[in-house]
Amino acid sequence: MFGVFLFNMPILSALTFGAVLGGTSSAVIIPLVKHLKIGAQTRLVLVLESAVTDVLCIVLTLALVQSFRQGNINVPAIFGNIIASFTMAAAIGVIGGIVWSTVLERIRKIQNSIFLTPAFVFVLYGFSEMLNFSGAITALVFGMTIANVEYFRFSWLKFLEKRGMMKLAPVELNFISELVFLLKTVFFVYIGISIPFHDLKYMLYGGLITLALFIGRLILSKFATSVQANSYDKTILSMMIPKGLAAAVLATIPEQAGMPFGTEIKLITYSMVFLTILFTSIMILIVERSGRIDWAYRKFFNWGQKTIEVPLDSEVSLSNTRKLSKEDDEEDNEGTIGNA
Known about the structure:
globular; 16 helices
């Protein structure tokens, strides 16, 4: 909508813009939810949302860019490409993960072998891209496979199981996590130096879209969340709109493909990565520290809900009724962090 009506983008460019910004950042959300006192169901929803939307954004953006290169928008072909790309890329990742887990014990005997697992992932990535599938999906599924290889119990894997299927050792996991941290740091530095402050219109556009996302997320959190979620859980859900590494990487693809408004898509996305992460961090801090803001959110999420009235009779005094009401409010808002 913003792409078509605000920027006058062609429909394909606008759809690509939406696909780039359609997800949330797992790198931001997962560390945050670990330290927030929210319900287990809400925590699971946020983690799954960030993981699944990253995959969908990658596949959908690549499919739309491929449609632009072909010169037409073929909806069945787009969905066919999505399914084929996801399926074949996932198959390559699964096979690569199984094969690597069987040779991992021998690989460890090689001197300085800790770099070989990331190198093998790069090989799988390049092989998948060479076949016009999604290298990112291949790498993702490879990691999922090798992390859960002990659960593979298929008859056709018996000959592999005899050789021993190994998981990554803690030192290898720590090394890969350090690589991820390094790459994220370098990439966010690149995003920072790529945001043009000589023309603040892109920051303004990013701010407008961020505000619209927040309002839309606030409404969805009120009407589309589980009835088991309390007002604090809904408050946290309404703020979790950070864009991250996936959006920043995907934003460069339309420009590289020569798509109209490709530069604008990249610059606006870069500004939104910065603004949405800043917005999410500040709002969570404010809600935790400010009792008034927390009260306002609780009023908003509880507005329009039916309340059960306690009848006043000779056995229940007004003071006891107020005490019961206070206890009910505390139970309804269980999981909230202390107010200022």
